[in-house]
């Protein structure tokens, strides 16, 4: 391929002039570090060899940034994406952000230092309205191919692969209402969590009573929040994740209640093994394989030098009916409908 064609390709990818690209490739002064980094990243992403005098070599690595591995939906996503990337001869750098682990911003800096060809986030600070989003700007400045899975704050400018969270809650609510439940609670993530905000909006369109609780996506915290909702008279709970639903089931059992005889519970994700909980969990299934493959496709589209839409690609969820939700039955005389908690 001709040198002029290479200059044109890189200039178009980064959004600078061919003269600027030429100055970077010839290691000339007068170019900002951000522009220099963006041009060198474009070389790697588009498959061009760097000049010998420029440090580093092109890699065929893709960063997968996950918030945790204890929630089984994230390993399932990682497996789907890693398999799809392997078919294009890309290797995966797996970055797992935990509460006491490496901050997301540090992972981004590490991935940029390793000259990865792209990054896919399967949960992170982009979903939190009050979080620091500065490290995403570094990805934009380098024009590094990036894809986000699930709803994000406005203005980041990256392609997104999302489940229709509102429709998922609608299906769960309608299912429980059809079973005769009128006191349906909603157990969400933190207040600044964008997917939870979308779930809440769908719920409020149905239920003005607004039995809403919040907890981090962890079993122990969800157990406490679910106990409060049950104590307020909820006969059914829609949970923002399967992990949250497991916490709700634990809360019911600790309160001496039976699931689903006394309290019905619906999860969200259909994580692996949810068919084998006690009772098997009725849940809203996210199409994990399809979403993972779509995220990889959007990333490879950018790596191949083709523009990807900076908007949400929605996937329809599916209600999976098992045994954790049952028809509402009024308590027998003398039987307490719920256990009050402080």
Name the beta content range: 15-25%
SS content category: alpha/beta
Radius of gyration: 24 Å
CATH architecture of the largest domain: 3-Layer(aba) Sandwich
**Alpha plus pi helix count:** 11
Poorly predicted regions are 333-342
CATH superfamily (homologous) name of the largest domain: Response regulator
User: What form results from the Cα inertia axes?
Assistant: elongated
CATH topology annotation of the largest domain: Rossmann fold
Q: What count of structural domains?
A: 3
Number of strands: 12
Side by side, the strands of the main sheet go 2-1-3-4-5-11
Average pLDDT over all residues: 89
- Percent of residues in helical segments? 25-40%
Q: How would you spell out the order of helices and strands? A: HHHEHEHEHEEHEHEHEHEEHEE
Query: What's the CATH first level of the largest domain?
Result: Alpha Beta
User: How far apart lie the N and C ends?
Assistant: 72 Å
